[in-house]
Specification:
Layout lengths: L2 E11 L16 E2 L9 E3 H17 L5 H8 E2 L10 E2 L3 E2 L2 E4 L29 E7 L6 E10 L7 E11 L3 H17 L13 E11 L15 E8 L6 E6 L2 E4 L5 H15 L5 H10 L5 E3 L3 E3 L13 E5 L2 E4 L9 E4 L5 E2 L10 H8 L7 E9 L6 E12 L2 E2 L2 E2 L1 E8 L4 H18 L10 E8 L11 E6 L9 H4 L6 H14 L3 E7 L2 E4 L2 H6 L10 E4 L4 E6 L2 H14 L23 E3 L13 E3 L7 H4 L1
Parallel strand pairs: 2-9, 14-22
Antiparallel strand pairs: 1-10, 1-11, 3-7, 4-5, 6-10, 7-10, 8-9, 12-25, 12-26, 13-14, 15-25, 16-25, 17-18, 19-20, 19-33, 21-22, 23-24, 27-31, 27-32, 28-31, 29-30
Helix pairs in contact: 1-3, 4-5, 4-7, 5-7
Length: 623
């Protein structure tokens, strides 16, 4: 499959403004977007929008087919498509970065952040631009209408921005035609960024250069007979995989890369590639023939070499600064208070009551949760050049890197096939396809880079002692809590989960305690996309990651077999295994577990623990 990268250099004349969503220092009203090193940046989505406007104008003039524009840039989802994406073939870099001749970053990152001094206003090199509104009636400045705009370059400076657009499966004739259309559109665009109407962001020149790209496959020779492998990768931009819509135009991201997103990108690429010829097309067809056997767990950012899910067990109890115990242990399973050195009684806290304790727990257990960042986008009216009404939205993204470099994400891929020759051929095909397929991930269309296999740790499921503790590392559709939903009183939650586990492990394990959280999932999209067969609207009960289940071992060998199965394939879903009716499949990374909680406990002295007897009040006596 041919891949072509169009490297595009844009030369803009300062001042320009591509608004930063970061908090600003006192005195500034707006500032241009910058990288960590201070170099100015243009969002790739901004350039995509200008190209769309230019090509749509060409289509209005009759020199371009509107279908051609939709093919390369995509369009809104069709109303009858269940929100299936209609993506374009152009894959834009997240940002175009300023690269002056003297190196990246013409000015210090914090230079424009200083409040302007009166004596500096006369200097040409002041990286702050001023705007003032004029009163139409008096012709003088409006009171309080002064605007300060942070800049990265002095006015009149020509700044080059470099980025690229990648296209897959493109022929030579298509490549030449697309390059010509890109050059025409960039010549048509007069300026980029905000405040174009007053001379900001003038586009002086543009250069488009095409180059063929070769992507090497991963080496899997030493893992060819493995049943599961770890996959490490980096992301090229902040990512957003929707956890929930906070508002209709604001989306929050989960901290991980969902296994379902990775599988979806893989199978979508294979579906497209299978229509062609050659070795990659055959590999794609082979993968599509065994989609049911390819399972993928969530990708977590990790500090160490191994994969560590940044999940806090619900049984964790904070007993002081940076100190924790585990409520799944018998000695801490009953309510207690803690007596400090002064004799005062302190109330231990579960995660639902934590604040600073989250940071303490992550530091103690070497967990890595990527920081959040808000990206704000708005559609632009092509006729006016201003923002469209009701077209603003924001993404609460997770940052893909820290000051020390890009985060390494690690997931696990499992092949649920017994024949070794089949596993060998699938690993070979995945090694060829995955470096090409993992793009357009999430709402920011992130790309996975630097892919590599690593050996996954061996699964050990031998229960020690008479108790087994299982921690849920990813959300799962387990018990739908019928007793709780019918209004049953004390013990209903435990009884409902006991029914679920009894169904899936018979009497080998008996659930005796739990620390579980749940939430309802549903809404119009889920109902029409997955659950349209339900006679009535019925949201599902999702058991959340971090839930802890404590079992008694009744039959050791059979318990070992069930635990081995759950560790390898995840807890069974209560909603079946059909991907058309269940988005929370174990194959997509849901229902993953570990044995134990992994909590690093700091045990208090026995005399510090004060047991608490919970007495149910006699309602007749208190009435």
């Amino acid at each position: 499959m041919s891949i072509v990268r169009f490297q595009i250099e844009l030369k803009l004349r300062a001042p320009f403004l591509f608004k930063s969503g970061a908090s600003l220092p006192l005195g500034l009203d707006a500032a241009t977007l910058t990288a960590e090193d201070g170099s100015a940046m243009i969002p790739g989505s901004h350039l995509r929008g200008h190209l769309r406007h230019a090509w749509e104008e060409f289509a209005d003039f009759g020199v371009l087919d509107p279908a051609w524009v939709r093919e390369w840039l995509g369009s809104e989802s069709a109303s009858d498509s269940q929100d299936a994406p209609s993506r374009g073939r152009l894959d834009f870099d997240a940002y175009w970065r300023a690269v002056p001749a003297g190196g990246i970053g013409a000015l210090r990152r914090d230079q424009w952040m200083s409040l302007p001094a009166a004596r500096a206003v006369q200097s040409r090199d002041v990286p702050v631009r001023f705007r003032v509104r004029i009163d139409d009636e008096t012709g003088v400045a409006d009171a309080g209408a002064l605007q300060l705009i942070g800049q990265t370059h002095p006015a009149g400076t020509d700044v080059s921005f470099v980025g690229s657009i990648t296209v897959r499966n493109i022929g030579k004739a298509q490549q030449q035609d697309l390059q010509q259309r890109l050059e025409q559109a960039l010549e048509w665009i007069p300026a980029l960024g905000a405040l174009k109407g007053i001379g900001f962001g003038q586009l002086i020149a543009a250069n488009v250069k095409a180059e063929a790209v070769s992507v090497a496959s991963m080496d899997c020779s030493q893992f060819s007979s493995a049943e599961r492998l770890g996959l490490s990768f980096a992301l090229d931009r902040p990512y957003c995989f929707g956890a929930r819509a906070i508002e209709s135009n604001r989306f929050e991201s989960v901290p991980y890369v969902p296994g379902g997103a990775l599988r979806g990108a893989l199978f979508a690429w294979c579906t497209e590639a299978a229509a062609g010829d050659g070795e990659l097309a055959e590999a794609a067809k082979h993968i599509l023939a065994h989609t049911h056997a390819i399972h993928c767990r969530h990708g977590w950012a990790s500090k160490a070499d191994g994969r560590t899910a940044a999940v806090i067990p619900n049984s964790a109890i904070s007993i002081g600064a940076g100190q924790f115990v585990d409520a799944s242990e018998p000695r801490y399973s009953k309510p207690f208070l803690l007596r400090d050195s002064s004799g005062s009684l302190q109330i231990p806290a579960f995660p639902s009551d934590w604040k600073a304790q989250f940071d303490d727990f992550e530091v103690l257990h070497d967990l890595l949760t990527p920081e959040t960042r808000v990206d704000v986008r708005t559609a632009i009216d092509a006729s006016t050049g201003s923002a469209k009404e009701t077209a603003l939205f924001s993404l609460d993204c997770r940052v893909n890197a820290s000051a020390s470099g890009a985060h390494t994400f690690r997931c696990e891929i499992m092949l649920n096939v017994k024949e070794q020759h089949l596993r060998t051929s699938l690993w070979k095909g995945l090694s060829q396809v995955l470096p090409l397929a993992l793009h357009h991930l999430g709402k920011t269309e992130a790309r996975a880079e630097q892919l590599a296999w690593y050996s996954a740790p061996e699964v050990k499921a031998d229960p020690e002692g008479e108790r087994v503790v299982v921690t849920l590392l990813s959300d799962a559709l387990l018990s739908q809590l019928p007793r709780v939903q019918s209004g049953a009183a004390n013990g209903a939650t435990l009884a409902d989960y006991q029914d679920y586990f009894r169904q899936h492990c018979e009497d080998a394990l008996c659930l005796v305690d739990l620390h579980a959280d749940q939430k309802l999932v549903g809404g119009s999209y889920f109902h029409h996309r997955f659950w349209s067969g339900d006679k009535y609207y019925r949201p599902r009960v999702l058991t959340l990651a971090g839930s802890v289940f404590v079992f008694e071992v009744r039959h050791r060998e059979r318990a070992r077999q069930y635990l081995q199965q759950w560790l390898s394939a995840g807890l069974p879903s209560a909603d079946g295994e059909d991907w058309k009716t269940n988005p929370y499949l174990p194959a997509n990374g849901y229902g993953e577990i570990r044995l134990g909680t992994g909590i690093r406990c700091t045990h208090p002295a026995p005399e510090q623990i004060v047991p608490v007897d919970l007495v149910t009040p006699d309602l007749e006596e208190t009435a």
